[in-house]
Specification:
There is one protein chain. The protein is built from 9 helices and 2 strands, in the order H-H-H-H-E-E-H-H-H-H-H. The protein has a single domain, classed as Rhopdopsin 7-helix transmembrane proteins. The protein is globular, with a radius of gyration of 20 Å. It has 273 residues and is mostly helical.
């Protein structure tokens, strides 16, 4: 066990196991990118695929990133942040869609949708650019266990995927909570209105409800993980050496999303005969 607080034994077999999980997540994400019929789900899947591929590039050097060029390490660290920002924005929009249908009971606005897609592109670019400037000033991106990441000083991690993303996870958790309360309590009036809206947008209400219920857990987990990062930073706890719980959680995100959404017929591209 690592003396730095890692919850796992920093061993080669464990690294191989986690890389295997990343590989499975990559395959799942590629499948979902091709199969999903909704743009938001495609964006979500693409971001997961890019994140998985980015981490797996470490295996080029046999997970000995000290052999990798410094430029690669910086690029890998920034790409990790970029894909995480993109994933968070896609997840936030998904929870908003559920909140819009169930709680607000309003139809889509084409203008709003265009604004959302623009934000999904702009937010990761802006945040990654800010992080790149800060990281270059403080030499913050360095070799970590499985890939290059923000390591020091610890406060720079507040600008990373597990720092500012708590600001995104909070409204997402609120929207999911409101939706879950209504769905699990079966408010007949609200669900009737929801069904009407869902059908008007050519979506199966029962399948959408299943997606909504399943989407609550990832949102809450994301919020808890982000809060844990903030606590570690304020307590000046250094980034763990060795494979941590966050590494394992990240490696299975594609698998979890596939299990939740990838087998739902409403999400799958309908092929013309």
């Amino acid at each position: 066990m690592s003396n730095s607080g890692s919850i796992f034994d920093d061993s080669e077999p464990l690294n191989v196991f986690v890389y295997t999980l990343w590989s499975i997540s990559l395959v799942c994400a590629i499948y979902m990118t091709i199969a999903f019929n909704r743009k938001i789900m495609k964006i979500f899947s693409i971001s997961i695929a890019l994140m998985s591929l980015n981490v797996l590039l470490s295996t080029i050097w046999g997970n000995d990133l000290s052999k990798a060029p410094r430029q690669f390490c910086i690029a890998q660290g920034l790409m990790l942040q970029f894909t995480a920002y993109m994933t968070s924005m896609a997840a936030l929009y998904f929870t908003w869609e559920s909140y819009r249908l169930i709680v607000l009971k309003i139809k889509k606005s084409s203008t709003f949708i265009k604004s959302v897609y623009s934000l999904m592109i702009a937010y990761p670019i802006i945040m990654t650019s800010i992080l790149a400037l800060i990281s270059s000033e403080f030499n913050s991106i360095n070799v970590h266990t499985l890939c290059c990441d923000i390591t020091n000083p610890s406060w720079v991690r507040l600008f990373g995927y597990a720092g500012v993303n708590v600001l995104i996870a909070i409204p997402g958790a609120y929207w999911s909570g409101r939706v879950a309360w209504i769905v699990f309590n079966h408010s007949d009036k609200t669900l009737r209105t929801f069904s009407t809206l869902a059908v008007s947008q050519e979506r199966d209400p029962s399948t959408v409800l299943i997606n909504i219920k399943n989407a609550v857990n990832p949102t809450v987990i994301s919020l808890i993980a982000s809060i844990n990062t903030w606590i570690d930073i304020f307590l000046n706890v250094p980034l763990q050496i060795g494979v941590s719980g966050n590494d394992v959680a990240g490696s299975i995100i594609g698998i979890v999303v596939f299990i939740i959404f990838g087998t739902a017929g409403e999400n799958i591209q309908k092929r013309s005969k």
